[in-house]
Amino acid sequence: MSEDVVSEPSVCTRQPNQIVRRARIKPGMCGPNSLFVGQVGDWTWDAVSQFCGTDVYNARNEQGSPTYLGFYYYHIKASPDFHPGTLTFGDMLQVDSNVFGFGSESVLTLHLISRASEGTLYAEPLDLDTFYQRTPDNCMFIQNFNRWLVRTEGGSNEKLQKSSPVDFVSEHLPQLPARYSPRLVYDYARRNGSFLTEEQKAQLQCVAQERFEYQVDITRDLNGVGLLYFASYFTIVDQAILRLWRKMAWEDQSFMDRAVLDHQICFMGNANMSAVLMLEAQLWVDPGNPHAQKIFNVVIFEKSADRMMAVATVQL
Amino acid sequence: MSEDVVSEPSVCTRQPNQIVRRARIKPGMCGPNSLFVGQVGDWTWDAVSQFCGTDVYNARNEQGSPTYLGFYYYHIKASPDFHPGTLTFGDMLQVDSNVFGFGSESVLTLHLISRASEGTLYAEPLDLDTFYQRTPDNCMFIQNFNRWLVRTEGGSNEKLQKSSPVDFVSEHLPQLPARYSPRLVYDYARRNGSFLTEEQKAQLQCVAQERFEYQVDITRDLNGVGLLYFASYFTIVDQAILRLWRKMAWEDQSFMDRAVLDHQICFMGNANMSAVLMLEAQLWVDPGNPHAQKIFNVVIFEKSADRMMAVATVQL
To answer: Are both B11-177 and B185-315 of the same fold?
Structure first.
């Protein structure tokens, strides 16, 4: 029987650590939800599978236990004309993913995402200098820092421990410069419950706070291996932002229209499906120009153990 | 610079209406959530784009308005050893999608989904006889019946009307036999608020009921064009089932372990982001054998207009 190959989004690699793809935005990848951040996470797993010697979707450690390339730090830098909220059905993207080595238990992936132009691929792979020093213009920079994690107590999602697959290699990749180690950033966030610097806090004013419980939703929040899905943290953070939004008596429509220009989140722990989370959310603005910039800070705790699970700082 | 093509899941077509693909299950496509049903929806849009002359992701009607290939009826038939809840990271599937013509404003797609075996493609395309007469064995049959819908009142999600893209063609496809028209099934469901037949109801007993409000969640429920995402209806139905589950004092873990063997849902309307929904849910069992089979029936209304939005019958 005749078979014709259908054109799929083309994917190609460039030496030594870069994978470039065209991807069509479909309903399962966009919207005012966490589908796009989840899709980018899959692209990270694809890129690491491509370069690091292991099948990330089916990885095992030395003991034969499943090990997951958990998301530890996720940073989106976007531009007013191209941010996750602007993506809709049919958009054709170019996704340029660059993988960097950082020891035997973690790996960093930088994605440069833009509207695809016919036939063009980027000349310059995205590096950390560009990520931190440039403001994205009509594109998004997304940094994913991932660590290999295994369960240590049966089916519990608590006390995940670092453990790499036996076949994981990253020494051959460009190495992450020490000055750009995400550890510097997330250690700060963990200590301070925020990515905001003392200098920023001195210039800004906290104009609203909320503290509320969130029961893990077992019809939505878990992933295919029963862990709290990293993309669900984004939605939980959005729920905290929405509470502050409504507290300020701002319209839901303006919440939907918001442009997230910078979104940092550090994931410090997972939780069981029965967990109740406690969220602490703050809205910070520049008192001299309160409409210019809104910065939301959200800390997620596991309530029963008062254990910090995530810190997010989101700038509109 | 050298470029190597990376192997992507292969996709090929067979004449005249069948598309076959291998697909790897990734975190963004599985779990106790609605990611998999959403992914299947994207495969439907891919298949229709392939065969029906129009780019479903970017379709316009004669007036130039965006028209969406809305989900009207979605029916999953699964087997105890292979149902959406069994899918996990790394599973390699074979997805065999068959498109059938049914007039100028709608189209029906049947997916046969199974674990991929090395190099094998199905000899027999899935047809409606098989869908209705066979019990899937270690595979899933999924039927999607879709209609072209446009907004008629500005940005409102109410009063969507049928309207096809100018370039949509389906006469060249195998036509849906009249006896298998999904209209027969969903007209019944609309009239009766259930897919259960009178005969089934006579044999079964309703042992629990719940009625509760659900506020559309603007951090989760909408899609990339601002409509209530069809996959969100599955989650809303699951929330109703979970309420009944807990009312019966059954464990959350057994809810997570449930095997959905048959899931029918008819989508009769959409809703705005400010909508409050009213859900009516029932649990039916065989009184002679109450643990053998559980059937959940869920009706979703838009509360302010008392408008029926969806009917679902889910059999474990």
So the answer is: yes
Overall fold of domain B11-177: Thiol Ester Dehydrase; Chain A (3.10.129)
The shortest CB-CB distance from B28 to any of A24, A38, A88 is to A38
CATH topology for B185-315 is Thiol Ester Dehydrase; Chain A (3.10.129)
| Nearest Cα residue in chain A from B242 | A219
Show the CA angle centred on residue A313, arms to residues A311 and A316, nearest 5°.
155
Domain residue spans in chain A?
11-178, 185-315
Q: What is the pLDDT of residues B65-111, one digit of tens each?
A: 999 999 999 999 999 999 999 999 999 999 999 999 999 999 999 99
d(CA A80, CA B116): 43
CA dist., res. A262 & res. A300, Å (int): 19
For the domain made up of A11-178, give the CATH fold.
Thiol Ester Dehydrase; Chain A (3.10.129)
ipTM for the predicted complex: 0.95
CA distance B219 to A239: 6
- Given A8, A38, A218, which is nearest B252 (Cβ)? A218
pLDDT over threshold 80, residue A123:
no
Has residue B1 got a pLDDT over 50?
A: no
Residue A122: predicted pLDDT: 56
Q: Measured between beta carbons, which residues in chain B are less than 8 angstroms from residue A58?
A: 89-90
Indicate yes or no: CB of A219 within 8 angstroms of CB of B231.
no
Tokens of B97: 């999608």
